[in-house]
Structure to design on (396 residues):
């Protein structure tokens, strides 16, 4: 069931009616918007010590999950604008901690919002009360979902609420947990859900997911052994601030994830991280957006294509400047085979190809690795590492 909050004498009243969360019926003819693509992208926005996640569906719908701390709000709004987001079909406040809802104040003041989902966990902070007041003033439908509810963002994407908690004992326990499924690829977004919530979800749901957003920024209060075994994540995103005072992520959690053979990406090291999927495969890449001077601040390279049988991998420079590849590496994950790039540069907008196998090419656009076969035809992820050994892009 879902609950929509309305205002009577400044008090919030809950009204119950249904188990599938739909956008309210418009008074006039609805204009169907589409981005004419079959891809979905999930953006893990770098907000420092906090969470903020943008989901862009194949039909061009947008959902924002959390907004980081209050001081991160401006950056979140800027990021949304850079992604062409003019309205948000759903905003989700997983729970009322400041590092999750603070930045939503700026979002509420800057972006049109169709629906607002909240855990229902009451909080007495000024930030939480200001957030509620903005929602009320702007007449945004305020929805408190129940476990098992589905959110209708896109006809191709299934979003299920696995946890919520207006009656939870603390804020973290109240975290809204979402499983986002697009055909064969899935995302588990856990807020700050703790080990107790994880245990409950293990008993109630199939948690296996392609990508996990680790709970509570990698704290050892979350990401239990049993939970990671249930999720079996191929990729794990850690959202935390560099040199934070909490020691996130804790070594025990990182060890558990590595033991599970999950590839780990962190916003503290990489900044904004984007997972793009067509519902079958997916890519993990760093997002490169112009800075205030209009320049791309960091190396904007990503793996744009891969043909295992032809033994060809394409590397594209999506930035505005020339990038030197000396010291970079291309890795065949299945066989732990490593190609070390020579002292060569790639022009803006250019794609170069690393080739191997009996038909390996070598010319201006092709770099020959070897005549041996380096890729497993049954499935082999390709990783692009920078000169510091940090994974900058991965194509499964």
């Amino acid at each position: 069931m879902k609950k929509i909050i309305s205002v009577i004498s400044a008090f919030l009243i809950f009204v119950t009616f249904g188990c599938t969360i739909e956008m309210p019926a418009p008074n006039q003819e609805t204009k169907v918007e589409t981005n004419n693509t079959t891809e979905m992208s999930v953006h893990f926005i770098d907000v420092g010590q906090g969470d903020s996640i943008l989901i862009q569906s194949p039909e061009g719908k947008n959902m924002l999950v959390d907004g980081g701390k209050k001081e991160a709000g401006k950056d979140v709004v800027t990021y949304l604008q850079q992604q062409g987001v003019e309205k948000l079909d759903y905003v989700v406040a997983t729970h009322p901690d400041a590092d999750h809802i603070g930045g939503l104040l700026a979002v509420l003041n800057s972006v049109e919002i169709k629906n607002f989902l909240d855990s229902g966990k009451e909080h007495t902070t000024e930030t939480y009360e200001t957030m509620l007041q903005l929602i009320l003033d702007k007449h945004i439908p305020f929805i408190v979902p129940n476990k098992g509810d589905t959110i209708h963002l896109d006809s191709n994407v299934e979003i299920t609420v696995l946890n919520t908690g207006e009656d939870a004992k603390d804020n973290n326990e109240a975290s809204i947990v979402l499983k986002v499924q697009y055909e064969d690829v899935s995302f588990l977004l856990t807020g700050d859900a703790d080990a107790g919530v994880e245990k409950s979800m293990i008993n109630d749901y199939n948690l296996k997911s392609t990508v996990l957003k680790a709970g509570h920024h990698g704290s050892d209060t979350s990401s239990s052994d049993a939970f990671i075994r249930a999720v079996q994540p191929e990729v794990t995103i850690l959202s935390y601030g560099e040199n934070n005072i909490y020691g996130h992520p804790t070594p025990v959690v990182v060890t558990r994830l590595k033991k599970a053979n999950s590839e780990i990406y962190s916003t503290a090291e990489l900044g904004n991280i984007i997972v793009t999927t067509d519902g079958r495969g997916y890519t993990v890449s760093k997002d490169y957006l112009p800075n205030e001077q209009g320049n791309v601040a960091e190396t904007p390279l990503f793996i744009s294509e891969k043909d295992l049988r032809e033994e060809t991998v394409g590397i594209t420079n999506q930035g505005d400047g020339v990038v030197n590849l000396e010291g970079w590496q291309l890795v065949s994950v299945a066989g732990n085979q490593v190609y070390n790039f020579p002292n060569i540069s790639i022009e803006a907008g250019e794609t170069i190809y690393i080739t191997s196998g009996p038909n390996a090419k070598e010319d201006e656009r092709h770099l020959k690795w070897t005549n041996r076969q380096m890729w497993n035809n049954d499935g082999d992820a390709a990783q692009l590492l920078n000169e510091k050994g940090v994974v900058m892009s991965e194509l499964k």
DSSP finds eight helices and 30 strands in the chain.
